[in-house]
Amino acid sequence: MKTMTSQELLSKAQKVCAKRGVRFTTAREQVFTLLAENEGAIGAYDLLDKLKSIDAAAKPATIYRALDFLSKQGFVHKIESINAFVLCHHFSDCNHPVQLLICDACGHVEEIQSNHLDLALRTMADASGFAITHQVVEAHGKCQNCQ
């Protein structure tokens, strides 16, 4: 499978925003590109440091507003357990269940999709009378390179 470059991902995201009729501002594009160029997950303040090299006037609110937009569009996932963000490379389906494998040794994050896990979780939720509106499953351990 060919991995898309950050420029190809940005172009794809621009097309998605145009189709949805939402504004992909310069700041949002810059934060998206930084995430696309980053290996693995990154925290908001580390993103801010990188953004300041492009836009010296960038503030925490700039990052948080951009991340909020990118998250709502399905372009990024927030990793709650480490308070960081990772780009979703298949963001055309922004409502998909999210399952993340997080390496505690090197920080690598891999997004996987298991329809079996999703079905099992939804079946158990339905049996409890619970309606899932958003799903992120985070699994911590060691990646193949760190084992």
TrEMBL record:
Keywords: Cytoplasm, DNA-binding, Iron, Metal-binding, Repressor, Transcription, Transcription regulation, Zinc. Pfam families: FUR. Binds 1 zinc ion per subunit. It is found in: Cytoplasm. It comes from the Bacteria. GO terms for cellular component: cytosol. The keyword Transcription regulation applies. CDD domains: Fur_like (cd07153). GO terms for molecular function: DNA-binding transcription factor activity; transcription cis-regulatory region binding; zinc ion binding. Zn(2+) binds at residues 103, 106, 143, 146. Its main location: cytoplasm. Its cofactor is Zn(2+). Belongs to the Fur family. Homodimer. NCBIfam families: PRK11639.1. PANTHER family: ZINC UPTAKE REGULATION PROTEIN. This is Ferric uptake regulation protein.
